[in-house]
What we know:
alpha+beta
Amino acid sequence: MDTLSEILIKTYPxxxxxxxxxxxxxxxxxxxxxxxxxxxxxxxxxxDRLCLKEDVTDPKVIENWIYxxxxxxxxxxxxxxxxxxxxxATLHFNPIGWxxxxxxxxxxxxxxxxxxxxxxxxxQNLIDIATRLGLEQISIEIPPVLDKAFYLFEKMxxxxxxxxxxxxxxxxxxxxxxxxxxxxxx
Length: 186
Ligand SMILES: CC(C)(COP(=O)(O)OP(=O)(O)OC[C@H]1O[C@@H](n2cnc3c(N)ncnc32)[C@H](O)[C@@H]1OP(=O)(O)O)[C@@H](O)C(=O)NCCC(=O)NCCS
């Protein structure tokens, strides 16, 4: 079985076309991408950053991510068009303990590039990597307000396994449910 480094070297950078023919390159985030990543997250509406768990518009948060960049812990896969980041999907590994057979996904795409298959392509790439690593489960946590994401992950074979009532708060501080979805890998 290939290691993560071997998979990444063999697979990326990868050129793909969105459903309307827009050419996009997929590759892991590099240390030089900090400014571009900050600009990308700053361009997303606040509600679209709800699932990211950290304030990604804070330069210190991104600086820290770049400083600590370690694909074996968190693998960020970015999509680029004309040199700009237009999508970001991360795979969070749990190398120790009772969740080491799992990884968690987080995903955003740029508002101007949506509904052209980019989100699906990014998630499919992460699923392929997790499968090649021999992981057994891949999960996503979604507040119901992000209903588009629910349909995307459902379409890709993720199933709702838990609905944690009132577990999170939205931007107005209102309690919201959190849906946990899991895809079992072959
Ligand atoms: C969810 C998100 C990543 C989808 O990105 P995308 O690039 O538009 O994804 P795709 O074009 O591959 O869409 C895939 C599916 O998502 C659903 N979807 C996406 N946009 C939709 C819309 N405007 N209306 C209805 N369904 C939509 C559909 O099921 C679609 O499949 P289909 O085209 O076969 O009908 C994007 O809307 C986003 O960044 N949202 C905010 C952050 C978020 O919700 N992240 C996920 C939780 S971490």
